[in-house]
Design a protein that fits this description.
The complex is a heterodimer of chains A (about 375) and B (about 290). With about 375 residues, chain A is an alpha+beta fold. Helix content of chain A is about 35%, strand content about 25%. In chain A, strands 1, 8, 9, 10, 11, 12 and 13 form a seven-stranded antiparallel beta sheet that branches. In chain A, strand 11 and strand 12 form a beta hairpin. The two termini of chain A are about 40 Å apart. In chain A, about 45% of the residues are buried. Chain B contains nine helices and 14 strands. Chain B is α/β, with parallel strands linked by helices and about 290 residues long. The mean pLDDT of chain B is about 95. Classes of the chains: A alpha+beta (about 375), B alpha/beta (about 290). The interface between A and B is large, with 56 and 60 residues.
Chain lengths: ~375, ~290
């Protein structure tokens, strides 16, 4: 889920042989202006942010002289785009385009194989176009052992009705894009738009690359991209991240902690069905220790918007006594008067129950059914 | 006779000397799973819980007959382990390993398709045919033998649902945990096809979640085949915010696709009984199978 910035993607494109326009990256207004002067007017200023729909939010501006570039750059560095601050601006050569195409390689879930997608409608409208007119989106399923074949590339260029003199370079861009996807273990590598110039050159004008977090172990060069999405995450998500806890903020006031993704989601759903609003999704995973659990629970207990916390654990490799111990430690260390509703079943359930009942001065209710716990949580918050 | 595994299934545990591998090898053996060997590169010649350990699958298979393997090795070596199993002629490979890069998973799936072997996972709780055999990490107490097949993407939620069925005296023929990753060796359709043919499975429970289009594909399959056995489904994630990964790498509503409403309406349109709460599964099953709640 780690997104790369556009300029990082374009640099990777260049490294893998995909033609890109001239570009420079600047971190202040003066550097933007000098970069524009080096590259030549007209030029594009593009805010380097990770949120979507950047163009519509004023994150892409064409400038035709230095003073205009200065003003546009000032606005970009000062403002935010979709809540995200701009710390880098990419200055990019303006390229004449006859046509805008769309090209991507992605992990195909249903196909269980890499999938190449291409469309003769590039630019911002590709998804609409794809939905409206089935058939304009060309698709090739790639054998992960043998890779993309030249035959597949020519099939695609036929569907896109590319001019003869652009077909060879199109095929090589497809092959390079696939190599890039494998080379960096990306979930998605996307070129949108890939433009066809009047002299039949193809140039990648934008990049979207989503790296696979699970593969970061073999790509130490991308280690710092982990957690980048928090740039536009909520305050609760950022606080949790700082404590080494991963959660998804869902905006409500009933804190949710569970073990296992499915069970935790189901717990949120039960709260919602009872009329309550879940504050978050926090999955402690399998086999959490008391210390890990304490840390997770503390994040929610310390956050003002969360009025109470519902803990739902079905013990397997996770032991109920460890969870109970974690609850005990979290509550004994703070003066928080927030209520904790606990539903603990499975491995070492009796031990867990004993620990919970030994906690003094804390506001805890114990449940054996998740439905009852969720109902009670909703009731407590609404009354 | 259940699907995928039964009392005659002979198993090799890959990564048996690791913390997870040895812990679960013991539990599986206690459950009655016929574990004939384990592997761990460089640790051949040892024994773990009286199970002989070999350096490679090839060596293990030269001394023993096995038709299934279960993989506990760390993610960076999971592809290798899987390929070794396929080359040694294993017909069912269960991958417990979490965090396998999708590119590796896709390669392994491509290889399994060539040999015709079944691949379950990765990042899954495994498979259990209660009272017969267990290839996984699930707590055995939650399960009991009976006529209902269960197919699910999640681990603990499955234990929860199986446990509620067990308490309601509805046992399971086989429970298949598909896994939480976006790319999986076995999907709902594959598992449902097996359960369709199984004489001991009279009804099926599907436990889905948001993300991907597997539940929708499954609904299509149920409609197309006029699936004869009653199906009850629960789908987790109606409150999941879009574009956010909900714990499982595969649990994400992306570009408006794979959300709760789409899955539930597809399943319901195919005649599947979709319940709102995990605790309603048992009642819906009884109604579907015997005409009373």
């Amino acid at each position: 889920m780690s997104r790369l910035f556009e300029y990082e993607g374009l640099s990777l494109f260049r490294r893998f042989g995909i033609p890109v326009p001239r570009f420079e990256v600047a971190t202040n207004v003066d550097d933007v202006v000098t970069a524009c002067e080096r590259i030549g007017f007209p030029a594009f200023l593009k805010a380097q942010v990770l949120v979507g729909s950047r163009g519509r939010a004023g994150g892409v501006v064409q400038v035709s002289e230095s003073e205009g570039a200065r003003k546009a750059a000032e606005r970009m560095f000062k403002g935010t785009i979709g809540g995200e601050e701009t710390s880098k601006v990419m200055v990019c050569q303006s390229v004449k385009a006859n046509r805008e195409l769309y090209l991507s390689v992605t992990v195909g879930r249903s196909e269980a194989a890499p999938v190449l997608l291409a469309s003769c409608f590039g630019g911002t409208g590709v998804e609409d176009a794809a939905l409206r007119k089935p058939g304009v989106l060309a698709k090739e399923v790639i054998d992960p052992w043998t890779g993309l074949s030249p035959a597949q590339c020519s099939r695609i260029s036929g569907i896109l009705q590319l001019p003869e003199d652009a077909r060879l370079s199109f095929a090589s861009i497809c092959l390079d894009l696939y190599s890039l996807m494998c080379g960096v273990d990306a979930d998605l590598v996307e070129v949108n738009p890939l433009v066809l110039t009047p002299d039949s050159h193809l140039i990648a004008l934008d990049s979207k690359i989503v790296l696979n977090d699970d593969a970061l172990f073999r790509h130490p060069e991308f280690a710092e991209t982990r957690g980048r999405h928090l740039a536009f995450g909520s305050e609760l998500e950022r606080l949790a991240w700082q404590k080494g806890v991963q959660l998804v903020d869902s905006g409500g006031d009933i804190g949710i902690v569970g073990n296992g993704a499915g069970l935790t989601m189901a717990t949120m759903d039960l709260v919602k069905l009872s009329g309550g609003r879940p504050a978050d999704f926090l999955d402690i995973g399998g086999g959490a220790s008391a210390e890990q659990f304490e840390r997770s629970l503390s994040v929610l207990l310390d956050y003002a918007r969360v009025k109470l916390v519902l803990v739902n654990v079905f013990g397997g490799i996770t032991r109920c006594d460890e969870i109970a111990e974690g609850i005990k430690r979290a509550l004994s260390k703070r003066a928080s008067r927030k209520k904790v509703l606990v539903r603990l079943v499975g491995t070492n359930e009796a031990l867990g129950k004993d620990i919970i009942s030994s906690i003094e001065g804390a506001d805890i209710e114990y449940f054996s059914s998740a439905d009852d716990a969720a109902r009670r949580a909703a009731q407590l918050v609404t009354t | 006779m259940a699907v995928l595994i039964d009392s005659k299934t002979h198993v090799v545990v890959q990564g048996i000397t690791g913390r997870q591998g040895s812990f679960h090898a013991k539990l599986m053996k206690q459950y009655g799973t016929k574990i004939v060997a384990g592997t761990s590169p460089g640790k051949g010649g040892r024994e773990v819980w009286d199970i002989p350990v070999y350096d490679s699958m090839e060596e293990a298979m030269s001394k023993h007959d096995a038709d299934a393997s279960i993989i506990y090795v760390p993610a960076p070596s999971a592809l290798d382990a899987g390929l070794e199993a396929l080359r040694a002629g294993i017909r069912l490979v269960v991958i417990i390993t979490e965090g396998m890069p999708p590119l590796d998973t896709m390669k392994l799936i491509a290889s399994a398709r060539r040999t015709g072997a079944h691949l379950i996972g990765p990042n899954c709780p495994g498979v259990i045919s209660p009272a017969l055999s267990k290839l996984g990490i699930m707590p055995a107490e939650a399960f009991s033998q009976g006529p209902v097949g269960v197919v699910c993407r999640s681990g603990t939620l499955t234990y929860e649902i199986a446990w509620s069925m067990t308490q309601a005296s509805i046992g399971q023929s086989t429970v298949v945990g598909l896994g939480g990753d976006p790319v999986l060796g076995t999907d709902f359709v594959d598992a449902l096809s097996l359960m369709r043919e199984d004489q001991d499975t009279e009804a099926v429970v599907l436990v889905g979640e948001i993300g991907g289009e597997e539940e929708e594909k499954c609904a299509e399959f149920v409609g197309d085949t006029s699936f004869e056995k009653p199906i009850v489904a629960y789908v987790a994630g109606r409150t999941a915010p879009p574009e956010r990964r909900m714990g499982h790498a595969g649990a994400i509503v992306s570009g408006g696709r794979g959300d709760y409403a789409s899955k539930v309406s597809a399943l319901a349109a195919a005649g599947v009984r979709v319940v709102d709460r995990p605790s309603q599964v048992a009642g819906a099953l009884r109604e579907a199978m015997h005409g009373r709640p």
